[in-house]
Design goal:
By secondary structure, the protein is mainly α. It contains eight helices and no strands. The protein folds into two domains: 99 residues, Rna Polymerase Sigma Factor, Chain: A; 82 residues, Winged helix-like DNA-binding domain superfamily/Winged helix DNA-binding domain (Arc Repressor Mutant, subunit A, Orthogonal Bundle), CATH 1.10.10.10. Helix 2 packs across helix 6, helix 4 crosses helix 7 and helix 7 crosses helix 8. It is globular, with a radius of gyration of 20 Å.
Length: 183
């Protein structure tokens, strides 16, 4: 017995329904913090991170058809959009500015030791080649699954895993050098 509508039409109709009900405000409220932390860890700049996240949400509002649930989650799409914005900004600006974060009132010595360790980790991450840095930030700092990271970066899952493995090796080496220098 023939179907009244082709399967493609059903899938397209379901996709359109999902896109039409995509709630950017709810996405913003639930994903902003993670996207911002990703942007901050990826770029090292609070201003660039905030701008990239805002622009990603504006792009999604302007063109909701970018979201295709068959390709991945809205979260994965947004991570990819933020990543692409930051990469574009870096190419156009060609500057690497790190901003130090202020820490609350704690014991001064432990504050400096903690700040040094944080700076060493941040420097080690920022010192990684971009293709390693982005998988570290997504998988380790943002706790995305390999699959989510793969969709965000438009890479095969195996590539994400191998890049993460190599990035961990480089970070281990860089941080052991930091520890060995007595810093």
């Amino acid at each position: 017995m023939p179907l009244s509508r082709p399967i493609e039409a059903v899938v397209l109709a379901e996709t359109i329904t999902i896109v039409e009900t995509l709630d950017p405000q709810a996405l913003y409220q639930s994903h902003y913090s993670r996207l911002y932390r990703f942007g901050l860890a990826f770029s090292g700049s609070e201003a660039r991170a905030a701008e990239a996240v805002q622009e990603a949400f504006l792009d999604l509002i302007r063109k909701p058809s970018q979201f295709d649930p068959r390709r991945g989650t809205a979260s994965a799409l947004l991570f990819g959009m933020v990543r692409n914005r930051l990469r574009s900004a870096r190419r156009s600006e060609r500057e690497e500015a790190l901003e130090d974060d202020a820490v609350g009132d704690v014991d001064l010595l432990s504050h400096f030791e903690r700040s040094e360790r944080i700076a060493a980790v941040r420097d080690a991450i920022l010192g990684l080649p971009e293709h390693y840095r982005e998988v570290v930030v997504l998988c380790e700092l943002e706790e995305c699954s390999y699959e989510e990271a793969a969709v965000s970066l438009d890479l095969p899952v195996g590539t994400v895993r191998s890049r993460l493995s190599r990035a961990r090796q480089q970070l281990k080496r860089r941080l052991s050098e930091y520890e060995g220098s007595g810093a």
